[in-house]
Amino acid sequence: MRFNSPDEYIQYLAQGGRSENNIYSCVQLLTKALEKNPLSWVHEFGFNGLNQVLRILYEIFQNNKPYERIQYECIRCLIAFGNNTVGLKALIEHQEALMIVVLFLDPSKPGTMYEALKLLGVTCLISNDTHKKVLNAVTMNGKLRRHKRFLPVVQGLMNRQNKDLRAACLQFINSVKQAASTESKRLILEKNAPETKTGIMDSLLEQLQAGTAFDLLNPGRKRHT
């Protein structure tokens, strides 16, 4: 399998009926190509290429396909695509990109979630507008799955077997907190946390150490032991 131009990648990914191995190999090569080629190459890949990567991710989610390694590589591909002004602008302006990435905040797939948190955390810090977009995506995901919006992040923090995922969860929370530039935004972020001077990140850490993170997400409910 060999590709030379952005169009060749786009055309290959756009064609249906590809096997899991072929899709994975193509996206893996695409990630490397986005990392090593000049900005003009990324520009040529553009919105059309971005749409193909996002389509693959959404179809995996929608059809509940267990293609974890493709999910992982697609998120890494988005990070490589957005690691420059051209790609980052396209990601931010895309109406569905962040919402699709948030769908993969799944603690049962720690590798993919780790990459998704990195992308969302960096995006959150760019501007007030991107901060709002990330929070909106997280909120919509919570409504879609009918759980508290930060539940996957807290579950990731509670995974004591995966230090990288826990660190990524903390970094994401810190990014969200730092990007909250007004007091009203901070109040919105912290409304699910108990009253504390330290804020949501320190509150999460304290409750994790005490084993009471369940209470943060389910105030007023009794925990079954």
From TrEMBL:
Matches recorded under PANTHER family: PROTEIN DIAPHANOUS
A Gene Ontology term for the protein's cellular component: actin filament
SMART domains with a match to the protein in the record: Drf_GBD
InterPro entries reported in the protein's UniProt record: ARM-like, ARM-type_fold, Formin_Homology_Diaphanous_sf, GBD/FH3_dom, GTPase-bd
PROSITE patterns cross-referenced by the UniProt entry: GBD_FH3
Protein's UniProt name: Similar to dia: Protein diaphanous (Drosophila melanogaster)
Family annotation (Gene3D superfamilies): Leucine-rich Repeat Variant
Residue stretches making up the GBD/FH3 domain: 1-225
Gene Ontology MF terms in the entry: actin binding; small GTPase binding
Gene Ontology biological-process entries: actin filament polymerization
